[in-house]
Write a structure and sequence with these properties.
about 150 residues, alpha+beta, 5-stranded antiparallel β-sheet, two-stranded antiparallel ribbon, 7 strands
Length: about 150
């Protein structure tokens, strides 16, 4: 009985096919929003909460004001919300999630992590130059990777 020799071309084709298959699996999970670090998908609520908490912990927030016909970016000390529940209670329709992303980010198929964009519209509480507590409606777009990291 003769031993059948392995065809080097067949082995190379099999290896290339296996690598292509694995890359397709990785890309499909990536595009579906899979977080590789946590080995799971984040819910929309989790992504929104992560973006809100990012802004809640910022001490200084910039926003544009108009002064004598010119637009100036000023930094103000934010008066933080106590927690996410207070934030949502005072800003009930604050947040929207666009799972496809809307910022100038690489397309999903080219990026390492699929991106989402969370738009937050909320009432910022801050202290002005004279030390007076003020409020102002502001809006931020936040890019998130699959694991909820803000960039």
């Amino acid at each position: 009985m003769a031993v059948k020799e392995k065809c080097p071309v067949c082995m190379a084709a099999w290896c290339i096919g296996a690598v292509f298959f694995l890359v397709c699996i990785w890309g499909g999970l990536n595009m579906s929003g899979f977080c590789w670090a946590d080995k799971r998908w984040l819910s929309d609520e989790e992504k929104i909460k992560m973006a809100v908490q990012y802004h809640m912990h910022r001490k200084i927030l910039p926003f544009t004001i108009e002064h004598m016909g010119q637009f100036i970016i000023k930094d103000y000390e934010q008066i933080p919300y106590q927690d996410f529940d207070e934030f949502k209670a005072l800003n009930p329709n604050c947040c929207t999630l666009n799972p496809k992303g809307s910022m100038d980010l690489p397309p999903r198929s080219l990026s390492y992590n699929y991106t989402s964009t969370v738009r937050i519209n909320y009432l910022m509480r801050y202290i002005d130059e004279s030390g007076t507590k003020q409020t102002r409606q502001i809006s931020f777009d936040n890019g998130l990777d699959n694991c909820g990291n803000i960039f």
